[in-house]
Write a structure and sequence with these properties.
Shape of chain B: globular
Helix content of chain B: under 10%
Order of helices and strands of chain A: EEEEEEEEEEE
Largest sheet of chain A: 7 strands, mixed
Strand content of chain A: over 45%
Number of strands of chain A: 11
Order of helices and strands of chain B: EEEEEEEEE
Number of helices of chain B: 0
Largest sheet of chain B: 5 strands, mixed
Structural class of chain A: mainly beta
Number of helices of chain A: 0
Shape of chain A: globular
Number of strands of chain B: 9
Helix content of chain A: under 10%
Oligomer: heterodimer
Radius of gyration of chain A: 13 Å
Chain lengths: 114, 109
């Protein structure tokens, strides 16, 4: 079974704090993704990575950065958390290369910034 | 990426087939149709995907019209655990997914 795990299910941080969200997958997938999900807006792609040390911006990268030092781990960083970053954050992974590959999602981290 | 249109909500009786429609009239020749679902408070779960032909797996069947402008996801015997939001997504064979707002399926006893 593909397993994508996220470091926390629930997180509460204060405005201005630096926040790290960690994601780990155990299937040797090349690709990893960070999304956020908000009511009425669906899932929106923040950043993704096709390989170690590689990253590409998604649709809403502002206010976020990412790190992929190891193949199995993809971190999302909020340099200075703001209240409009309160959201559900979802990590996903998939096989690399060409072809139609499904994404496997983690359980999500519900972040509240106060 | 092609835009999809889905009804916001549907109901289905337990044990009956749930047929979830999706319109994707601007789909391109190299774009696949994917279906995911999201049960409350969980991450999205992959269900099935197809390009031109109908597909079936242990979870569902996917029927794609000949002109590929629409598709239907069929859950043959819906259970209460199938209550979820179902997302229809079309994209080329790259990994970027664009989720819309989906169809909220409520299975009732």
């Amino acid at each position: 079974d593909v397993k994508v795990t996220q470091s926390s299910r629930y997180l509460v941080k204060r405005t201005g704090e630096k926040v790290f969200l960690e994601c780990v997958q155990d299937m040797d997938h090349e690709n990893m993704f960070w999304y956020r999900q908000d009511p009425g807006l669906g899932l929106r792609l923040i950043y993704f990575s096709y390989d170690v040390k590689m990253k590409e911006k998604g649709d809403i990268p502002e206010g976020y950065s990412v790190s992929r030092e190891k193949k199995e781990r993809f971190s999302l960083i909020l340099e200075s958390a703001s209240t409009n970053q309160t959201s559900m954050y979802l990590c996903a992974s998939s096989l690399g290369g060409s072809g139609a590959y499904e994404q496997y999602f983690g359980p999500g981290t519900r972040l509240t910034v106060t | 990426d092609a835009k999809t249109t889905q009804p916001p909500s549907m109901d289905c009786a337990e044990g009956r087939a749930a047929n979830l429609p999706c319109n994707h009239s601007t789909i391109s020749g190299n774009e696949y149709v994917y279906w995911y679902r999201q049960i409350h408070s969980q991450g999205p779960q992959y269900i099935i995907h197809g390009l031109k032909n109908n597909e079936t797996n242990e979870m569902a069947s996917l029927i794609i019209t000949e002109d590929r402008k629409s598709s239907t996801l069929i859950l043959p015997h819906a259970t209460l655990r199938d209550t979820a939001v179902y997302y229809c997504i079309v994209r080329p064979n790259t990994d970027k997914l664009i989720f819309g707002t989906g169809t909220r399926l409520q299975v009732f006893p």
